[in-house]
Amino acid sequence: MIRAWKIDYSAMHDGPGIRTSLxxxxxxxxxxxxxxPEGQAFEPHLVFLHSRCIGCGLCAERCPVHAIEFEKExxxxxxxxxxxxxxxxxxxxCLSVCSPQALEIWGTDYxxxxxxxxxxxxxxxxxxxxxxxxxxxxDPLFQWESSLELLEQCRxxxxxxxxxxxxxxxxxxxxxxxxxxxxxFIDLKHMDPEEHLRLTGxxxxxxxxxxxxxxxVLKKRNRELVIRMVVxxxxxxxxxxxxxxxxLSSLPxxxxxxxxxxxxxxxxxxxxxxxxxxxxxxxxxxxxLIESCRKAISAFGLNRAR
Length: 306
Prior knowledge:
With about 300 residues, this protein is α/β, with parallel strands linked by helices.
């Protein structure tokens, strides 16, 4: 069994070609800039999309544990629902009667044969485009055993595989994953261990050891390793980029480094999850800042992935 919150059957930015990307639930880090907070917790979330609700009340009537109540909003003729998360079992009964789709569950369990059937459907597209299956998240290595089984099945069937991870995972488990994949993205957050702890909730010692391990194993296997870094102005730019470039240039192998500009597209999701967002006023980096990061890694002989 594997738990995913999204499946994209035509992904084009998660590895080569056109891919089936599985966004898995669960992540050991809590990056303060995360744009996919729905992927952090392993537990599914029942989400209420207020703008879609027509106030019919069918969801409250259907809920077997009375986790949904109606409340009248001041100045509005249409009642709105109030969810009680502590009572909700996320059984999905309310979704079955919500025709405007104002309720969603972020997180679905799939049997591994079911996932492989989904992946196999696009085999002809993979063949023409050079694509395959990508595991992302959240962090797919939070569910490393199920992820490993999927990767093994894909390898046996000749389907190209990509994993995107923070590399914060058990070292022996990571070694087993590295033996199965064709392409690895590692999302590098910050080089300083104390800043990493402040920004993500974890130190980076284990991550850096796993980056070194990935570089060595994938070089021997002639597979691809790409480092991704989200550039967040005032948080991980400047000297941190220099330190990252120095560290990465010392490794046996890195195919390239890709800089992704910070964006605030995920802020609305925090509201849906009833969580505060830590960087509400932060602006995306300028193209000039992104280019300076690219020049910094080029100065150390590293290739730009994009």
